[in-house]
Every structure is written in structure tokens, then in C-alpha cells.
Amino acid sequence: MARVAVCPGSFDPVTLGHIDVVRRARAMFDEVVVAVGVNAGKTPLLDADTRVELFARAVADQPGVRVVRMPGLLADLCREVGASAIVKGLRGGADFDAEHPMALMNRHLSGVDTVFVVGDPGLAHIASSMVRDVARHGGRIDDLVPDGVAAAVRDALSTQGESR
Ligand code: PNS
Predict the structure, then answer these.
(1) Atom of ligand 1 nearest to the CA of 76
(2) Would residue 126 count as lying in a domain?
């Protein structure tokens, strides 16, 4: 039976760090389902459909990887897709501190364990929140994100600016 991993996140926007984690997850599992979810503590810059589309475009060349929208609980999605594991990337200890309670809650709800992978250290400075902040202040983000993402972030920021 194919072993499926779920890589969940807000991906607001997807970064090269996320792509690295998905590639590592795919090396360990037959199929990877990237789940674009809602973090109750965050108001996203990009709408969910855009986040799904940008991620899907970035992994279009990777067989065995698909991207879905996760409207509800990660535990429910894990059940739907028959996940053997949740895979998340760690850049350092602060990531672990944030991920640990989520991993426990997800195992409580679904029985599915979270597997942590250490990403490429050359990408450890990249976080979606910082990418948004750099872009917001006019900095260059093109080499931090997959092709087409920087333009989408700039578009979203300019639309947001107009609506204020
Ligand atoms: O990239 P993020 O913001 O750390 O991703 C967090 C996300 C979206 C994976 C998390 O908030 C999530 O799983 N949301 C779905 C709702 C859920 O299952 N909540 C309880 C598990 S912690």
C-alpha cells in the first residue's frame, strides 16, 4: 500500500524552504499531499486559492506530490487521504517549540505521528512572515520563493494598499 505523508502549512507564501521540505518528504513517502490550511492565529496576505495555485505550480515537476486546500482540521484530512505521517520542517529550536504541541494534538485527534525533517541550512533564514515583511518594505524576495510567487506577493500588497 502506498505510504502517504501530509505536509501542512499556511504557505503565505510558499518559499524555497517549503519546497525543500516537500522534496525530502517525497524521498521518504510514496505520495505527499501538501495541505494549505487556515492558521487561526494569522490573517493571510494571499487568499487560499492563490496559495494552493502557487504551491501547485512550484511542484508541478515533482511526481507524487499534490496540493489541496484544507478547510478544516488536519486530523480529518489525514484520515481522508490515508496519511501515515505528517511531515514538517524544522529550521531550529523555536520551530520545534511551536510544532511540538501541534504534533501532540494531531496525534491525539488522528493517531498520526508527525515526522520532523531538518531542512537545507542554506534556506534556514527563510520564513513566510519575513518574506512578506521584506516585500512590504520594497525589498527583493525573488530568490527566496519559487518562480511567480514574488509577483503574486507584490500584487497582493499593492491591492491591499489600495483598499486601505
Ligand atoms: O504554516 P503554519 O501557519 O504553521 O501552519 C499551521 C497549520 C495551518 C498547519 C495549522 O494551523 C493547522 O493544522 N490548521 C488546521 C486546523 C487544525 O487542524 N488545528 C488543530 C491542529 S494544531
Answers:
(1) 18
(2) no
